[in-house]
């Protein structure tokens, strides 16, 4: 790096002095490592079924999740409670923000060092299950070691991939349309209600824009969960088996619906929509004041509330709410090669079905999956935002439809392709039909 | 790294003959010296093997497989050249990323070097406080590819950022720079150019090496400022320019952090900041196509090697070394 000795067209000086390595040996050695390493990992991954007979043998269970400080504290408290009841079990906890979580999980797994127990969401559940990384929980469910008897059926079913229970819901939530109550009250505008049609929602948003100068609704055409609900209302779905559940015509209609909304100024401009698309929940437009409505998950209400002084309300997405479902906000999955499967299962069971543990965890990972315990927690809670989101979820639960299948392998690419295509249309670089055709084409190669 | 991958046609032949000759020399003494050498070298050698050479070769192997990072190595499938074929024939976003990266490098690198050289010339004078200015101009590159800086950039260049407030003082309505697909990449270029401190310092050092006699002689011959710059400074500085050009080009092609932060890891809006390395990262870690990403990485390495080689071969015609013989 020193300018006094600029590199020349000659090779670096060092090379002339280097004794040539016995190349063939080197390559052979490397090849041996390349071949041996996977064998070692592979062997480690399957040689564990017979052992661990002594139930009181000390066990150290590694567990990994994403989330903030608050979640970490609650989870660690709950795990400490488990250790108190089972003194032979201790935990090695790791947690971090959502950003980068799945990179790290994948890297740990690739390195042959995955956690015994990890948190996962429906974006990746099928990816991991299809690659045989997650333990099939079905037999544990059948034997009652994993008790789902108090779960809504559709909730645990939303963890089934290819007939195997790949993860157990750590909590329940659903799609939620969050709106700025304070803003509407100030301008004497009506609040939106569950069951409004999409057309009515856009007309309402147009009126909000005109009155308040704050765009009425965030354009959700790039948002897969909004598209998904809308598709289900048209009798379609995001996926059918290993195929797409929709056509380019469906997406064209969807993009056209929102092009109309943008033209009527019911939504912000493309660059502001992009801000909403590309940022996390703390910068959703409804809390940054750039739109009166955001399309989120209902369990994000408390997080949203923390970032604004305004009062927020939450309802179902427009159209028939039976297109929505009890969605697992996230799951607990067990690594297939874990040496401590039985303990890991018992811990999941504990986190979901033990009254004290569930009370400790509260609604941080969504509403408790166990309906009996959910009632207890909802009676106990004092946080108004949480109370509200429980009430909405409770009201909607009765209207929910069947769960769709968990998103398939390639879903993360489908999500990013949707953002790209929708933004192409939003920035006016493509017509809705062009953007839709491009999207469907990209999806086909993503899930192939 | 790429510097050493430059082709070296002259050394190879004689080199091997020479080691042959060494072997025949006073072998034993040489051997024990060699051993000691390797022992002293071993920490570095182990590091090189463990964290560079073996992973690199592994990734070469993986680039011919469908490795998805979750599947154990023992189960990966050999797919031959399929990844490479897909890259060149069936992946529009790959070519899009190539275009974005080349555009970025072709525009940002020359401008960055020009800025570095210009400021270096200004700061090469002996006026008071020049040290402070040198430090100030160098500061942005110290921050380097930092995430914090990229976040600052995003906040400065969005619709209600500081830059637009500044423009509004002059009655100009700004744009949502970082959120506008027509401007996001340009905003990144400005960030890259602004960090011209490192090449500037190297230019400064190079300028110090130019003998003052040459300027005196030139001015005796009646050469003005501009002529002196063209006929004395530039040729004398050409090795340094060459060095900076090669390094900055490689840096330019590898731009990642700012694009990652600015687009929240997506390369958006509408893929306008989808740099090559970002695309590679998304392919490997978000879409879990590590085999395909490995293939991309190898093509990238080759491309940089070729570009560097081209620089070296054209360097003959314009790089002059002051120690007499132009090598």
TrEMBL record, chain A:
Extract the Gene3D superfamilies matched here: Periplasmic binding protein-like II
Record keyword Transport present: yes
Name the source's superkingdom: Bacteria
Q: What keywords would UniProt list here?
A: Sugar transport, Transport
| Cell wall biogenesis/degradation as UniProt keyword | no
Q: Which Pfam families does this UniProt record tie to the protein?
A: SBP_bac_1 (PF01547)
Identification of the protein by name: Multiple sugar transport system substrate-binding protein
Source organism of this protein record: Micromonospora ureilytica
Automatic annotation (TrEMBL), chain B:
Q: Name one Pfam family in it.
A: BPD_transp_1
* Keywords per UniProt: Cell membrane, Membrane, Sugar transport, Transmembrane, Transmembrane helix, Transport
The regions listed as transmembrane in this protein's record are 38-64, 102-123, 135-156, 183-207, 295-319
**Which domain of life does this protein belong to?**
Bacteria
Family, per the entry? Belongs to the binding-protein-dependent transport system permease family.
Claim: Cell cycle is one of the keywords in the record? no
Instruction: Tell me what this protein is called.
Output: Multiple sugar transport system permease protein
All copies of the ABC transmembrane type-1 domain together span 98-311
Name the predominant localization.
membrane
User: What PROSITE patterns does the record point to?
Assistant: ABC_TM1
InterPro entries xrefs: ABC_transporter_permease, MetI-like, MetI-like_sf
Query: Where does this polypeptide localize?
Result: Cell membrane
Locate the compositionally biased regions of type Basic and acidic residues. 19-28
Quick one: where's region Disordered? 1-28
What is this entry's stated membrane topology? Multi-pass membrane protein
